[in-house]
Amino acid sequence: AVVSTQSTGDQRRPVHLFVEGKVNESRELLRIKWGVGRLAMECSSPPVIIPWAHRGMEEVLPLYHSIPKVLKRVSIQVGEPLDTAPLLADCQKFHFSPLATRKYITDRVQWELEKLCAKVDQIHHC
Questions:
Q1: Sign of CA dihedral 79, 83, 86, 87
Q2: Residue 75, exposed/middle/buried by CB under 10 A (0-12, 13-18, 19+)?
Q3: pLDDT tens digits, residue range 68-94?
Q4: Considering only CA atoms, which of 32, 5, 47, 55 is closest in space to residue 108?
């Protein structure tokens, strides 16, 4: 996911997160880390998360290799921006604890990534 966070003034800067927290050796989407939810909670203004998924990079640069392979197919699917402001407002409205808020936001990002992974799997294997 790419998270746009508030920095100085009205300028937003992208922050690139690998939300699984490690190199994924399988093709299955792992449970993402709660840091994405924590980041959304701790930003000075609610970030916009742009989820994306890819397939094929394991063919371009297999694990434990240092030289990329050329002419390999890579598929990328970019999702709709996810504004965390309404999610955070829901959490405040229903008096979620900080832990529940992190989980709620992380679960929503996970759900978006699962939808994208299904789409990218379809286009990559065509």
A1: positive
A2: middle
A3: 999 999 999 999 999 999 999 999 999
A4: 32
Q: Which residue has the tokens 């900080």?
A: 98
What is the rounded CA–CA span in Å between residue 75 and residue 125?
Answer: 9
DSSP 36-65: HHHHHHHSSS--EEE-EEEE-HHHHS-TT-
pTM score of the predicted model: 0.82
Mapped onto helix, strand or coil, the DSSP state of residue 93 is: helix
Q: What's the CA gap between 1 and 113, in Å, rounded? A: 8
